[in-house]
Structures are given as structure tokens and as C-alpha cells.
């Protein structure tokens, strides 16, 4: 049996959904192959690795030495590649990233959904023109580094290492906006000068937990939100950050400086209350023709250029002529709803988060769109109040559609479903459930929203008709 500390030689043959390489070894006395997950490897690498953790059906290992590099391995340009848990594909050529993502979607549909590739049209993945500097949102944990020789402390910002809450210090993340580095440097220097403590997850002490930075791609507006370990009523705890907000607000492009309060001992980054220190509570951006006000806690796609391509495909698959009733379930702040409303008779958005529903209504008014209507509640509860749809669009969270929502879709007379997914595993699961009720997967379009990572977005068209014309 394999155990922690064993040294093994592996050839990497696949990736996990999180982007680690997968190698398999024969265990003595068994005929099966035992998988080991090794981060920072590429398909085709032959590596020597040490086992770090063993579970019943798989194990984790770390590279000791690359014996034979894969043809698709490239030299990563980021100085913290391999330590930061973010860009798990930074060491793999972009062509190889796209090839694997496309095949991963196809394989998942077969393995989980039981749907063979010949039963639907798998479109070539839509790659990104910008492989770096594409993200419009970043959340940076704040920590403290103590020099063991001098005992001096300084504030650090960065990202968590894989499968841990250990902060890997990073002054400039290459997939984030360049100006974030300037903002973060200013915050670190202010914190050190004014003795503002970073939050300690073990003790629950310290003030500054995270820094959230959002940048509007089309308008250039920037929001900086400081997440603090305090209650809004405890003003003396965070009063020292007022001057920092003044300093941040003077920077080019910054139109919003906020405090978010989260004094719970939790992995959830944002709290429920905010305070505007300078400027306004949101930033303004566009997707296509539509203008959106984006608050600190709004869900908004992180890759603006690829989002337009994603929504264009959703619109294409919906096949709207101006006469259709559309349900947009999991509508969020109405980004897809308003995108579709310009081409439909009416769009009815349903969402369980009250703040998102209010944002959706505001964004509809902001754009002068009068044929988009938004409802608070679960789709299975609200749907009885809505007119029968011609098209249903869903864009669920990573866990996929709720089982009762699937039942709601099946009870409707709708014949066309557009499914936008950030997790092709749950898409495959839901497609299998829908197939049992007579739905057919027609087209599947992968979109690379997250270059340098294993993440991939997909748009699927499902129908109860034999043929769909789009």
C-alpha cells in the first residue's frame, strides 16, 4: 500500500478539475491503477514525486524532479507559479490548455451525463485574445510576515496556496489589472506606518482581512473595498482607515472606497454590511449595449471580453425574434435578462437573493428597458405567477440546478432551454436528468473565460424538438 513519504515515478496522463496533473501507479497485489494528483505538472511529464497525503481511492504528491518534460510545458513568467493556488495552468501552452478544456467538457458529458459526443454538436472552444490582465475583480487576503532574523513585521497581500489558507505574497498578479499592484502597495505601506493589524484566522484577532478591487473594463472606474474584522457599530476599531480611504480615493480611476464588515470566524470573505468612505457605492460598466451598476457583492462575470462572446452565444441559441416570452432563472443582477430583453417580447427574471433582484430592477430602469420583470423567490414557487415561456435560460451556481427547478422546467410547456454553466460536471448531471424527461442536448459551446486555469464556461442548447433552427 502506498503511504505518505513514498517516492514514486509517474507519467502524467490527465488533469483534475482543479488543474493538478494525474499520474497512476500499480499497487502491489492489485490489478487496478491508483491515481496520484500532482500540482504544477503537464500531460506528458515524467516526474519523480513524494507522496504528501493518502486517501482511500487517491493520493496527493509533490514534484521532486521533472525527469522528462512534456512537449506542452512552457516556462511560466509569474514568479509565484507553483506556490500560488491560482493559475494552475500557467506552465502549459495556451493551445494545450484549450485542447484539454474542450476534451474535458466532452468527456464529462459522456462520463457523468451518459451522453455520447456523436449525439450532439460540440463546437470548438472559443479562446481568449487576452490571456493575462483579463480579470476585473480580485480579492486579496491580508497577512503579516515576520522576519525570523530581525523580528520585524510587515503587511503582505497575495493569494492562498493550493488547498490552504497560507498566503503566498504577490505584488503583481498577471491576470489582474496592472493598477491593482499600485493600490495594494499603498495599502500595505499605510498599514505598516499606522500599525494596522492583519486578521489572524487562528486567533480571530486583527483588523484588515481582505482587499477587494473591482475594475470596470469599459469605463475604467475602480472600486476598492476593505473587508475588516469589526462591526459597523464599533467605529473606533476602524477609524484609522478613514485616511487610507482618502489616500486611495485620490488615485486615478478610483470612484468608490468602501468598508465591508465581517467579524465572523468564517471562510466567507464578505460580510452583510458596508460603509461608503469616499465616492459612490458602485462602479459602472457595460456588456454590449447595456449599462450595469456593480456593487461590492454583485455577481458579475470576471472576464469582460469573453462574457460578451458567452452572452452572444446564449442569445444565438435562444433564437429570439421579438415575440418570445423568456424565463431567466438564477438571473442575478439581470445581466443576461437585459441582454435578451432587447430581442424578446418580455423577459421574467427569478432570483432568491433580494439585493440582486433590486439591482436587476435598477439596471433595467438604468437602460430604459421596460420589458424585463424581476421576481424574488425560488423558480418553483414563482413560476405559477408567470406567463408560459417560449424559452428558458438558466445560469446556476457551480452546484448546478436545484432538483425542484428541474421539475419546474419539465412541468412547463417550453421546448427550448439555454443552459449557461460554470461547471460542466453539474451541467452533465442536469442534462442527464433532463434527458430522462425527453430533452435532447443539441449544441454545446465551451468558452475559455479563465485562461491560465482549468476553469471553463459552457453554453448548451437543449430542446424537446427533433430539430432546432438557430
Please outline what is shown here.
This protein is of the alpha/beta class and about 475 residues long.
Total number of strands: 22
Radius of gyration over C-alpha positions, nearest whole angstrom: 24 Å
Helix content: 10-25%
Annotation field: number of helices = 10
Residue-averaged pLDDT: 95
**What structural category arises from helix and sheet content?**
alpha/beta
Apparent shape? globular
SS strand fraction:
25-35%
Q: State the end-to-end distance.
A: 55 Å
Strand order of the largest sheet: 6-21-22-20-19-16-17-18
Largest sheet: 8 strands, mixed
Question: What are the segments in which pLDDT stays under 50 over at least 5 consecutive residues?
Answer: none
Plain-language structure description:
This protein has an 8-stranded mixed beta sheet, sandwiched between helices. A 7-stranded mixed beta sheet has the order 9-8-7-10-11-12-13, with helices on one face. The chain has a 5-stranded mixed beta barrel with strand order 1-2-3-5-4. It starts with 6 loop residues before the first strand and ends in a 7-residue tail after the last strand. It is of the alpha/beta class. Helix 7 links the parallel strand 17 and strand 18 (372-376). The model has no long low-confidence stretch (mean pLDDT 95). The longest helix is centred in the N-terminal third of the chain and has 18 residues, at 94-111. Helices cover 22% and strands 31% of the residues. The protein is globular. The chain has helices spanning 94-111, 179-193, 235-238, 242-249, 304-318, 335-341, 354-366, 379-382, 403-411, 424-435, and strands at residues 7-15, 21-26, 33-38, 46-54, 59-68, 121-122, 137-146, 153-160, 167-169, 208-215, 222-228, 254-261, 273-279, 282-287, 290-295, 325-329, 346-351, 372-376, 391-394, 416-421, 440-447, 457-463. The chain contains 10 helices and 22 strands.
Amino acid at each position: 500500500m502506498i503511504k505518505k513519504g513514498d517516492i514514486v515515478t509517474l507519467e502524467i496522463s490527465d488533469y483534475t478539475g482543479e488543474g493538478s496533473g494525474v499520474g497512476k501507479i500499480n499497487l502491489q497485489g492489485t490489478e487496478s491503477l491508483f491515481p496520484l494528483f500532482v500540482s504544477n505538472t503537464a500531460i506528458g511529464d515524467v516526474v519523480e514525486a513524494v507522496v504528501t497525503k493518502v486517501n482511500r481511492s487517491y493520493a496527493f504528491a509533490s514534484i521532486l524532479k521533472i525527469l522528462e518534460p512534456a512537449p506542452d510545458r512552457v516556462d511560466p513568467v509569474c514568479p509565484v507559479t507553483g506556490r500560488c493556488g491560482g493559475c494552475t495552468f500557467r506552465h502549459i501552452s495556451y493551445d494545450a490548455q484549450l485542447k484539454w478544456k474542450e476534451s474535458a467538457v466532452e468527456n464529462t458529458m459522456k462520463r457523468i451525463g451518459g451522453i455520447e459526443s456523436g449525439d450532439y454538436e460540440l463546437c470548438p472552444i472559443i479562446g481568449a485574445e487576452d490571456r493575462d490582465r483579463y480579470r476585473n475583480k480580485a480579492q486579496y487576503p491580508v497577512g503579516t510576515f515576520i522576519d525570523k532574523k530581525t523580528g520585524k513585521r510587515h503587511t503582505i497581500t497575495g493569494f492562498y496556496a493550493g488547498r490552504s489558507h497560507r498566503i503566498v505574497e504577490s505584488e503583481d498578479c498577471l491576470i489582474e489589472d496592472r493598477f491593482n499592484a499600485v493600490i495594494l502597495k499603498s495599502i500595505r505601506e499605510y498599514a505598516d506606518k499606522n500599525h494596522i493589524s492583519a486578521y489572524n484566522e487562528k486567533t480571530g484577532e486583527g483588523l484588515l482581512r481582505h482587499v477587494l478591487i473591482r475594475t470596470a473594463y469599459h469605463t475604467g472606474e475602480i472600486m476598492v473595498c476593505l473587508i475588516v474584522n469589526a462591526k459597523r457599530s464599533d467605529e473606533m476599531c476602524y477609524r484609522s482607515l478613514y485616511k487610507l480611504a482618502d489616500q486611495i480615493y485620490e488615485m486615478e480611476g478610483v470612484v468608490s472606497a468602501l468598508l465591508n464588515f465581517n467579524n465572523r470566524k468564517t471562510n466567507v470573505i464578505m460580510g452583510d454590511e458596508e460603509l461608503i468612505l469616499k465616492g459612490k457605492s458602485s462602479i459602472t460598466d457595460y456588456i454590449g449595449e447595456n449599462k450595469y451598476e456593480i456593487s461590492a457583492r454583485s455577481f458579475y462575470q470576471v472576464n469582460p471580453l469573453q462574457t460578451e462572446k458567452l452572452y452572444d452565444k446564449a442569445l444565438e441559441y435562444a433564437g429570439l425574434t421579438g415575440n418570445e416570452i423568456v424565463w431567466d432563472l438564477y438571473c442575478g443582477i439581470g445581466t443576461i435578462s437585459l441582454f435578451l430583453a432587447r430581442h424578446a417580447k418580455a423577459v421574467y427574471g427569478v432570483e432568491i437573493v433580494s439585493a440582486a433582484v433590486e439591482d436587476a430592477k435598477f439596471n433595467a430602469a438604468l437602460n430604459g428597458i421596460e420589458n424585463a420583470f424581476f421576481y424574488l423567490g425560488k423558480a418553483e414557487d414563482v413560476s405559477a405567477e408567470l406567463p408560459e415561456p417560449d424559452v428558458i435560460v438558466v445560469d446556476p451556481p457551480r452546484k448546478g440546478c436545484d432538483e425542484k427547478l428541474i421539475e419546474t422546467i419539465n412541468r412547463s410547456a417550453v421546448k427550448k432551454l439555454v443552459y449557461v454553466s460554470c461547471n460542466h460536471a453539474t451541467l452533465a448531471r442536469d442534462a442527464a436528468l433532463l434527458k430522462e424527461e425527453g430533452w435532447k442536448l443539441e449544441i454545446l459551446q465551451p468558452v475559455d473565460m479563465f485562461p491560465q486555469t482549468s476553469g471553463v464556461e459552457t453554453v448548451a442548447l437543449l430542446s424537446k424538438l427533433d430539430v432546432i433552427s438557430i
